[in-house]
Amino acid sequence: MIPPVAPPVRLPAGGRLTIDLAALAANWRTLAAVAATAETGAVVKGDGYGIGLEAATAALSAAGCRTFFVALPDEGVRARAAAPDATIYVLNGLFDGAEPVLAAAGLRPVLGSWPEVEAWAAFTPAAGQKSPPAIHVDTGMNRLGLSLHEAVALARRPDLLAALRPALLMSHLAVADQPADPGSAAQLALFREILAEFPGLPASLANSAGTLLGTDYHLDLVRPGIALYGAQAIAGAQPLRTVVTAEARVIQVREGEAGEAVGYGAAQRLRRPSRLAVLAAGYADGYHRAAGSSDARPGAQVFLRGRPAPVVGRVSMDLTIVDVTDLPIVHRGDWAELFGPNVAVDGVAAAAGTIGYELLTGLGRRYERRYREIGA
Ligand SMILES: *Cc1c(COP(=O)(O)O)cnc(C)c1O
Fold first, then answer.
1. Using a 6 Å cutoff on CB, does residue 57 contact ligand 1?
2. Is the pLDDT assigned to residue 375 strictly greater than 90?
3. What is the pLDDT of residues 28-50, one digit of tens each?
4. Exposure class string for 252-278: b at 16+ Cβ within 10 A, else e
5. Ligand 1 centroid – CA 251 distance (Å)
6. Does the CB atom of residue 240 touch ligand 1 within 6 A?
7. Does the beta carbon of 224 lie inside 6 Å of ligand 1?
8. Backbone CA torsion sign across 70, 73, 74, 80
9. Would you call 43 exposed, middle or buried from its count of C-beta atoms within 10 A (0-12, 13-18, 19+)?
């Protein structure tokens, strides 16, 4: 027998996310001012870098963004529902057999290999002008994109170009987050050479970091992602406004004696009599296990009652322990900031040996989510 369906009560969550859509919109406007001679699009793949694809797309659309980039057809369909009139590119290209799905939703494939070029050219009379594609050329990453050789070959194929009627030529920067690296300038030079083979075709090269590298990289359209969401785009640089605040509930405060061990593996021993707060979030919530600490190495810090508090011992699936000995009284029911305005997401990521992108996109589904709307 199927059990009766419970009424939709909201049960208390261990963690909560506050997502500031006004800050997201402000960050987009900041980048649009930086790239004032180009159009500023937005990348909303990875569920809008973890904040919710529909919410991100709708907020950016209201801020004036007209061109969106997603990775997958499914993300494109979701973005289309949130922004009915926008231009939407699917970065991972044309999956085998996905032509009708893309055309029906008016999604534009970013064609990144010769088989994709041929498949879309064969299909495109049916797609009409609703889905003019982008052509992706690889200029030094060996990920997606036609080789230089293939790009030149395509430029000399009027039959294919007439069938495709591409709307954009794009490439992607590999090392833009390291401004001292000469690789970006080399990619730009190569991209300009290819661009000369496609006269009149609008061009796009810059992600967030590329947008911040300077006007040379802006071309006709910039494609920022991470900077919109308040994390670091360029190594060591100050991010834009904080968009995501992740917090975890304090479920108990306990005392530990000097010499006692904390958590799985007894990885860390207390050096003094300590007060420990136990937080109801762990690696199942995307708070990485590698953010934990041991006797050999420190871990991440949270922010609680106005002060930083270090993680003690390993992060477990649903729980994280922090040292609050030096804090004012901490109560059961308090909320600890895992990252947000007081704890940089990139700092937590660095403690876990990763990047802000991975923390944001891996937040998990157990948080209560609260959106601060534009104008609220
Ligand atoms: C993800 C992605 C972007 C956005 O990159 P950020 O570093 O998040 O700004 C832009 N272009 C392509 C092709 C991408 O895959």
1. no
2. no
3. 999 999 999 999 999 999 999 99
4. ebeebeeeeebbeeebbebeeebbbbb
5. 38
6. no
7. yes
8. positive
9. buried
